[in-house]
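Lecture notes, unit on binding sites. The following record was shown on slide 14. It pairs a sequence with S-adenosylmethionine.
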Amino acid sequence: MTSTISGLTVGLAILVGALGLGWPENRDAMLHADDNDWDSAHVAPFVPTPPEVVSRMLELAEIKQGDVLYDLGSGDGRIVVAAAKKFGIRAVGFEIDPGLVKDSRQFVKQAGLEELVEIREQDIRTVDFSPASVVTMYLYPAANLRLRPVLMRELKPGSRVISHDFGMGSWKPDHMERLRDTAGFSRTIYRWRIAEPSGR
Ligand SMILES: C[S@@+](CC[C@H](N)C(=O)[O-])C[C@H]1O[C@@H](n2cnc3c(N)ncnc32)[C@H](O)[C@@H]1O
């Protein structure tokens, strides 16, 4: 049943693309995930989150002074730059693609945010999450699921995890909402809050 639904979704994405209806920026690539994606170094392609969705993700993160944001697979750096610019917090992007690392470092420099924003060329499968209090991601569902126990173990209680478009299996978000981007496409944002150890 699940594979039928997933097949239909992928089929629909291809159809929309083929008809030229503007499925945004190869977003259908995000639907081609399976569990093996975690075993290869590239756990998601570069598909940027639209600016209005970035803004809403950051609002839902309930950012306060002293927060440290980690963006897992930071792409062109748009989330870390937006977080530092709007909230003045420290933000670290982890990116495996050297070209994107170079471009996003340039973007950070142009924005004058080198004091607050760092781009690390690092595989997210090796990250220590303990310094972070907000984690954002737009990754394959399989990657979310593999990250889930690590996030639960390493993040401090009260930390927020925000994901664009994909959930984390049975880990129920404390907030989930759908919104339309400016091109009219539906987006979903999930937020989880790390509970006190006894509540996990
Ligand atoms: C869907 S894009 C999201 C980009 C950005 N976070 C955003 O929302 O606009 C996923 C990013 O993860 C990066 N990525 C894939 N596998 C990775 C890994 N193992 N470690 C670090 N980055 C990775 C990709 O190169 C890509 O830039």
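Take-home: The domain at 35-199 is CATH 3.40.50.150 (Rossmann fold).
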